Amino acid sequence: MRSRWALRAAVALTLIPVAALAASSSGSGATRSAKAVSGSITFDGVWTGAEAKAFGAVIKAFNKGDDWLADMVYSGVPAKMLNREQTIEIGPMSGKSNVIFWLERNGVEPTKERVERIFNRAKQSDSVLTDEEVMRLI
Hints:
Layout: H1 2-23, H2 50-63, H3 67-72, H4 96-105, H5 112-124, H6 131-137
Helix pairs in contact: 4-5
């Protein structure tokens, strides 16, 4: 519990100066204009070594229903700040925890056979599996 509050405090102390900087004027006399922006940006990450522990923390936070904490762990920009959400995909660099998490998030029981089938297919792929591909393997 203490570490959760320490993490939240560290994130807040990091984001406050960034927000203040973004809100301040550049002082160059340039005119600012607001324009609508649309589209999406995807940041893919491969979690290895010590980073795998952070990935485990993200999954643990999601499983506890603490989306805020999941958004803060190892994220430069919280997804919710951009009206988005973090997703965990399945690809050639994925572990079985990705498969289990994806299945649970999509209301499918992660049986040993399903996990193995999807995991093995992902290892043979040269890209992230689409949701449709995973569903066909169920």
